Amino acid sequence: MDEVELIQAARKGDLNAFNRLILAYQDMVFSQAYRVLGDPQAADDAAQVAFISAYKNLRKFRGGSFRAWLLRIVTNACYDELRRQKRRPTTSLEPLDDSGEEIESARWLADSSELPEDSILRTELGQAIQRCLERLPLDFRTVVILVDVQGMDYLEAASVIEKPLGTVKSRLARARQRMRLCLQEFWELLPTSMRLES
Is residue 14 located within the same domain as residue 83? Predict the structure, then answer.
């Protein structure tokens, strides 16, 4: 099929014919976009927008040079991108030194988020704490959750479980002791300060 036949087939909805046109002109369209925009990613985007626009408007192509028509579409896509950039100017995230050169590893680019190993350890410690909580008798577990997890003071906890303040304190002390002993089974997950000396 020659170009005219491909265009006619594409106008009738033949996607394969349009894809063959794209393959024939993609380098030229990208080159045009890159020369106008000076940025390969923006040029890629503009070329994609141009081909989508060409496909949608193929019925409006009145003959003549398909190449020129396609170049006009990509050039307009580039102009649109330049106008958009003017409205929303961007600042490079790459810091520059005094001579205008990019700094390879700036302090402010350092990732301060939790390391994957720390995240795994924290998750495993949380699971260990949950297992130890589940081993406590219900009365002890309830007091630990109210005071140590929910952050209630002793009086609030006593009010919730409807027991005297002394009972809350006693249960909490015994529950914490049992939790401490239980968590020693998972000593490798505990911070050094929480490990019992043997």
Answer: yes
Give pLDDT tens digits for 63-122: 888 888 888 898 889 888 888 888 876 666 666 667 767 666 555 556 667 788 878 888
CA distance 190 to 87: 53
| Residue 95 forms part of a structural domain | no
Considering its fold, how many domains does the chain have in total? 2
Q: Where are the alpha helices (DSSP H) in 57-198?
A: 66-87, 116-135, 138-144, 154-161, 165-183
Q: Looking at 47, 72, 87, which one is the last position of a domain? A: 87
Q: How many residues does the chain have?
A: 198
| Residue 139 domain-assigned (yes or no) | yes
| Segment 132-171, tens digit of pLDDT | 988 999 889 889 988 998 888 999 889 888 899 999 999 9
CA 4, 70, 31, 92 torsion: positive or negative? negative
Q: How far apart are CA 158 and CA 169, in angstroms?
A: 9
Q: Cα(177)–Cα(150) distance, rounded to whole angstroms?
A: 19
Taking alpha carbons only, the member of 177, 174, 155, 175 closest to residue 164 is: 155
Q: Whole domain around residue 42: which residue ranges?
A: 3-87
